[in-house]
Design a protein that fits this description.
With 340 residues, this protein is mostly helical. Helix content is 77%, strand content 0%. The protein is built from 16 helices and no strands. The chain has helices at residues 2-11, 15-32, 39-54, 58-76, 81-96, 100-118, 123-138, 142-159, 165-180, 184-201, 207-222, 226-244, 249-264, 268-283, 290-306, 322-332. The chain is globular, with a radius of gyration of 21 Å. The protein starts with a helix and ends in an 8-residue tail after the last helix.
Length: 340
């Protein structure tokens, strides 16, 4: 079917072809089902929305996810596991659009449904925990985010026998937040495992590999391995540029890391364009993680400070350490109880 073709093309990172196939599928179902209430149409709408979300087209994806949630609720009732999938998908795009309170509400509903219908150690329950961890992180609730992320990782490991991309995803997010708190000893093995899993399971150049390479580059930069960080950040930049385009925020983040690695090796002129343009892109993008934005800002400041251009460096703010600030939040923030 066209939907199956679209999913295969998405997996192969052929996003333009995938979008065309998925739009054709949705249009066909809309002609066949004028009422708009049909499982086949709902699947097609959801698949296109996921494709658009993955390539950064959040506004249209949000509208389609709302439609999928409404139809699924009419078809199945509000306690069905498939409705939790729709809630989760809508929450993802809301979060990346900066609508954190709305995203948290939908994810809590999804978690309640999944715990009741699927149990605590099911991949979809772990997914809801992990996605809530991201929302809490974006809200600045670092300790709560780490606790949910650890529970999600434990759930994924219990649910899967061997490698799985869900495990890699949970590993890399937990690793990033540990880097932010300065806990490099625990972060390193996690991001290394995540990258190894994705490289075993996914085709070369896949966006998930590139995203994990960005996490690895950040870890290597913060632990003083600039040359290795440059390799990872360059690979991430090149793959994400091909898949998502030069203007996508994930590409900009990889380029900021690439520029920071060049700065650490005293290649200042080459680093300048990368860190300045990427910071400018990130600060103009809604929903970008606040800590990543601060890292990107610090990369610009560090460049001009190291380059001996004191007249430019102050434009990019105080030289406060993001890791230190995150570590302070981690120490001082009370840990709320987790629902069961």
């Amino acid at each position: 079917s066209l939907d199956d073709l679209g999913l295969v093309l998405t997996y192969k990172a052929r996003y333009a072809d995938a979008e065309s196939a998925l739009r054709d599928s949705m249009a066909m179902f809309r002609r066949l089902v004028p009422s708009g209430v049909h499982p086949g149409l709902n699947m097609s709408v959801n698949n296109l929305a996921l494709m658009l979300y993955g390539t950064g087209h959040y506004s249209e994806a949000e509208k389609l996810f709302h439609e999928a949630l409404e139809v699924n609720t009419r078809l199945l009732g509000d306690k069905h596991p498939d409705v939790a999938v729709s809630l989760n998908n809508l929450a993802m795009v809301l979060q990346d659009s900066g609508k954190l309170a709305e995203a948290e509400g939908y994810l809590r509903r999804a978690l309640d449904i999944r715990r009741a219908s699927l149990g605590e150690h099911h991949p979809q329950t772990a997914q809801a925990l992990n996605n809530l961890a991201f929302v809490y992180h974006d809200q600045g609730k670092t300790r709560l985010a780490l606790e949910y992320a650890r529970r999600a990782l434990a759930g994924y490991r219990a649910a899967y026998d061997g490698d799985h991309t869900d495990i890699a995803y949970a590993l890399q997010s937990l690793a990033q937040w540990l880097v932010e708190t300065g806990d490099y000893r625990r972060a390193g093995p996690l991001v290394e495992e995540a990258l190894a899993i994705n490289q075993r399971l996914l085709p070369s150049g896949h966006t998930d590999i590139a995203i994990t390479q960005s996490y690895m580059a950040l870890y290597l930069l913060r632990t003083g391995h600039a040359s290795e960080a440059l390799v990872q950040a360059t690979g991430a930049d090149e793959s994400l540029t091909r898949a998502l385009g030069a203007d996508h925020w994930r590409t900009a983040w990889a380029r900021s890391l690439r520029g920071a690695a060049l700065t650490a090796q005293s290649h200042y002129a080459e680093a300048e364009r990368l860190v300045v343009q990427s910071y400018d892109r990130l600060r103009k993008t809604a929903g970008v993680n606040r800590v990543q934005l601060e890292w990107a800002r610090s990369h610009v400041e560090q460049l001009y400070t190291a380059w001996g251009k004191p007249d430019i460096a102050p434009r990019y703010g105080a030289a406060a350490s993001v890791a230190a600030a995150s570590a302070q939040r981690f120490t001082e923030e009370p840990l709320p109880s987790i629902d069961h």
